[in-house]
Amino acid sequence: MKWQFSNDAPIYTQLIEQIKVGIVVGAFPPGERLPSVRDLATEAGVNPNTMQRALAELERDGLVFSQRTAGRFVTEDKTMIEKAKRGLAERHIKTFLAAMLRLGYQPEDIVTLLRQETSEEESANGGSGM
Amino acid sequence: MLRKLMKHEFRATGRIMLPLFLILLVTSVGANFSTRGLLETDSKILDILGVLLVAAFAIAIASVCVMSMVVMIQRFYKNLLQDEGYVMMTLPVSVHQHIWSKLIVSAVWFALTLVVVCLACFIMAFDVGFLHQIAAGFQELFQEICRNLSAYYAFNGTAVVAEFLVTCFVGCCAMCLQFYAALAIGHSFANHKMAWSVLWFFLIQFAVQFLGGMGIVLLDESWFHHLLLGWTDNISGMASMHLGMFAVILGEVVYSAIFYFLTTYFLKKHLNLE
Amino acid sequence: MAVLECKALTKNYGHTAALDGVDFAIEPGRIVGLLGPNGSGKTTLIKLANGLLTPTGGEILVCGMAPGKETHALVSYLPERTSIPTWMTTTQLLDFYQDFYADFRRDAAEEMLAHLNIPARQHIKQMSKGTREKVQLIVTMSRAAKLYLLDEPIGGVDPATRDYILSTIIGNYDPEAAVVISTHLISDVEKVLDDVIFINQGRVMLQSSVDQIREEKGMSVDELFREVFKC
Q: What is the CATH number of domain A11-76?
């Protein structure tokens, strides 16, 4: 997994987001054990306390759960993961929309543009022999 | 902890001193060959070789003596006051232990240097006819003196030798501590640390001589002098000699104690590593 | 109890004040960045904590004790300049640390040395400057100390080594111990830190947690530092 951090948000919130992405895309599969806090922190190059905080937050949301001795696991609840995926998508859309509105596009123009863009991509993909 | 400090101190100094001792012993063997025959041959080359071997021996003796001194100063300076000081002065040991380890190890090397130099001289002179004769002559002379002295002054040879050795040993320690004190004071300055150290060494030297001279002048006519005269009038020459030796040793101990105090004080309170 | 505590700490060199009434406390389990421009008093502070200097006023306490041989056993110190005895071989250096520090983990040190391909029998004198720095960092981090004082640990090293050093610090994290990293290369260490202490001209300008700064100011510590210390 590749970890990247921006300057404008607290590191633990960025960690939460990136672990969520990891769970959604299956880098951390459902029901699997997560690496230890120290290993995750070393991998991401962040402070172990910050990593701990991020995981605690994810645990409160129910995406991961801990077993007293065995460590932390990814939830097996698929709907929960689906919900997290939806949440991430909504966030991306919100930032996208905000950026488009700033450029002066109206919501209906944005939809049209999106449709155009996605159909172009589809035809491009089709052309490459899907 | 003192034991561990000394262990590493011996490791650090031994790697310089032991090879030097070895070289000295090797050159003494060479000098032995040389005096045993090389110098008396007709061959020019062997003659020159003989001279070179003797010269090498002389240089080796000188360099061993000088190096034991240099190592003593350099270990204190490099190990405690330069970069290595960051590691050494943050070890869980006290300043006292640092100074004692340096002092004891230096004193041991001084003593060993003396032993090895004697050994080397012995090797050099081993089985050489004319030197043997000279030595025998000296021995005879010495025995004669001893006989006379013991006859007249109840000379206790062992005691005086022991006192002499103690004087030398404490003297070495005092000298070490004088160097340590000068370095410790000099290195408490922000700049030109080495220049300050040298200056302080001579200042201390001057102060000691000045005070010593003043002391003698002042004591000359004091009650103490009369007291001493009164004492020494009533004791034998030998006893006054022992008394004198003890006075010298006591003086050296006081001298050492002052420098020990100065060194610890400056290392504790005014350490100023670059 | 605080691992490192300064109370109205002052240090003068002659008439110039290197530290002027510094107050702060560092709790166990924290990784703290001591950040400030060159000459701000960072090294002076760390030297005081190591007993290499004596305070002019106020006090500095390590685990409740004034610096001395008892605290030296608790503090693992990486000086800003390489200071391990260069005549030793790596093995002799490990012997040395093992002899003096009860908390020295020789196996950890050997593992790290092997990881970096540093030969055990090579004399430190024969190593490059960078390798010497790594060796000293390894012996420093191989102790299970209560307080690590790292003075410019990433100052003169290449980016790959910098990453290695930082991951070593993270990998050795101990909730009972505190780590103080003094540096001016903030963007590199920011992710590793819990808290930061900004210090300038001998005074503490700011003490805060990294996440708090990012949350409240909406900028990284590096950006905040540039703003605070703008020339």
A: 1.10.10.10
